[in-house]
Specification:
There is one protein chain. By secondary structure, this protein is of the alpha+beta class. The chain has 2 domains: about 120 residues; about 30 residues, no CATH class. About 25% of the residues lie in helices and about 40% in strands. Strands 2, 3, 4, 5, 6 and 7 form a 6-stranded antiparallel beta sheet that branches. It has a 3-stranded antiparallel beta sheet with strand order 1-9-8. The termini are far apart. It binds zinc ion (2 copies). One zinc ion binds next to loops.
């Protein structure tokens, strides 16, 4: 979805306010694809600061379905985006090199801006709960719903070596 910025970029005092809905239902990124559970319209405002230059501000709320890092259960995560920046008309950009990466000619690309903002707000850790027990490395059981029958004892490799030497010595005697 593109917002035409021609007018607001042209003249001093020009103002633009718009509400728009992003089209995507799936958040596709380098981190993977995540279903969008809920999205509220983006409220976008821009005002001219000088000929060929405008300041923008936007807010948007969306909820994505992520997976718990430990047990892979579905976790819904709310993103409350709040962003702002300055853009300039393409001909101005050549002089000042400050144009936003979200501009396509005189249009603002909302989808790529929102995608970028979501990644900037991505949680360091996604957990279904702080004391999530994760899944068993052996049988894959979700340990939040009870312990499994697996023998999770991992023998110390150093102890195993001493045992071998001990056994070898015993044979010699
Ligand atoms: Zn979990
Ligand atoms: Zn197990």
């Amino acid at each position: 979805m593109l917002i035409n910025m021609t007018n607001v970029l042209a003249d001093e005092g020009k103002f633009l306010e718009t509400e728009c809905e992003i089209e995507m239902d799936l958040f596709e990124s380098s981190l993977g694809d995540f279903p969008i559970l809920r999205k509220e319209p983006l409220i976008f405002r821009a005002s001219n600061v000088s000929p060929g230059k405008a300041q923008y501000h936007g807010t948007m709320t969306l909820e994505l379905q992520l997976a718990c890092d430990r047990c892979l259960r579905e976790v819904s995560k709310l993103f409350e985006l709040n962003f702002s920046g300055v853009i300039s008309a393409p001909e101005k950009d050549d002089e000042e090199h400050e144009n936003s990466e979200f501009m396509e000619g005189y249009s603002f690309n909302i989808e790529s801006l929102v995608s970028n903002e979501v990644l900037m707000n991505w949680p360091m850790k996604v957990l279904c709960s702080n004391d999530c027990k994760g899944i068993c490395m052996k049988c894959g059981k979700d340990l939040n719903s009870g312990m499994c029958e697996c023998d999770t004892f991992v023998p110390d490799p150093r102890m195993a070596m001493i045992k071998d030497i001990f056994n070898a010595n015993n044979k010699e005697v």
